[in-house]
Design a protein that fits this description.
globular, single chain, 2 helices, alpha+beta
Length: about 100
């Protein structure tokens, strides 16, 4: 599984390629929510069909005005092509 993460304002984003399940995933959390509260803003596992396209990932981030880090989408595309596993990359904080 690849794990590509970044933060924007109060959002922590985790996305990547799930090699065993063969689809992209997306988790967006509000980091200002106390740990004992539900801080999940979006989780693809809450969908009827959890697999996500790159377009759907972009759409979910755009709904929350979360800028997409340079290179993220091409990295995710490559993760699928190479069926990558055990990769983690932190893009840091985005601005915008």
């Amino acid at each position: 599984m690849s794990q590509r993460k970044f933060q924007h304002n109060n959002y922590a984003v985790l996305t990547g390629w799930d090699r065993p399940l063969q689809y992209h995933f997306l988790l967006i959390e509000d980091i200002t929510t106390p740990l004992d509260d539900e801080g999940i803003v979006f989780n693809n596992l809450h969908r009827r069909n959890p697999g996500m396209t790159l377009r759907e990932i972009e759409d979910e981030l755009n709904k929350l005005n979360i800028p997409i880090p340079p290179g993220l989408i091409s990295d995710l595309k490559n993760d699928k092509i190479t069926n990558v596993g055990n990769l983690t990359k932190d893009y840091g904080r985005t601005h915008g």
